[in-house]
Fold these 3 entries.
Entry 1:
Amino acid sequence: EVDVHGVFTDVWGKERLGMTVTGSIRRSDFGVGEWGHVALSAGGFMVPDTVTVTMEIEATFEEPDAAAAS
C-alpha cells in the first residue's frame, strides 16, 4: 500500500515528495521460517511468519547538470 502525502517545498527551496509505503512479507518465503518460531504460553509465536514493514519516505528530484552530462 502506498499513501502519497503530497509535494512540499523544503527550507532549501527544493520540492520533496512525502509518502508512506506499507506491506507484509512472509519470512518463510526467504527460508527463515525454520527457526525463530518460539511458542508463547499465551498463544502465538515470538516471531510470526508474516511481518509488516512500514517505510516513511521523502524524495527529491534533481535535474542532471547539463555540463556534467556532456
Note: The two ends are 39 Å apart (CA to CA).
Entry 2:
Amino acid sequence: VHISDDAPFLQFGFRRGDLIRQINGVTINHVADFKREINQRRGNSTNIFSVLRLQAVIPIKVSVELPIVY
C-alpha cells in the first residue's frame, strides 16, 4: 500500500511514496489487507509498521489510535 499526499498517516511519520509491507508482523499485499489490519487494530495503543522507503525497510512506531480506513 502506497502513501499519498493527502493520507492521514503523514502525521505519524510516513512519507509520500512509502510502501507499507507489514503491520505488527502481518504482511500487507493488497489494499484490502491494509484496510482490514488497520480497522482491526484501532484500539491498540502501539502499532509497528514495516515500510519500504528508498529501497530500505524501516520500522515506524505509531503510538496513537489509528484512523478508520474505508
Note: The longest helix spans residues 31-40.
Entry 3:
Amino acid sequence: NWLDFGCGMGHNAAVIREMVPAICITGADIGEGPLEALRRGWLDACVQAPIQELSPEFQEHFDVVTLHHVL
C-alpha cells in the first residue's frame, strides 16, 4: 500500500502505477487533483484533507509514503 501525500493531479502516481501495476495507491491532497487522478485510474483511493486531519487508521496502513513537492 502506497500513500502519495500532496499528490496534486496524480502524475507521480501515474509513474508508480506504470512501474508497479499491482500496487494499491492512495493519493492525499487538499485540492481537487486527487479526484481527477482517481478518475484517470492512477489512484485506487483518494483523500481531500490536510495532513493533520488524516485519520489515525492511516498510521499503520501504508508500506510506502511519498511527499514530493510538499512544503
Note: The two ends are 23 Å apart (CA to CA).
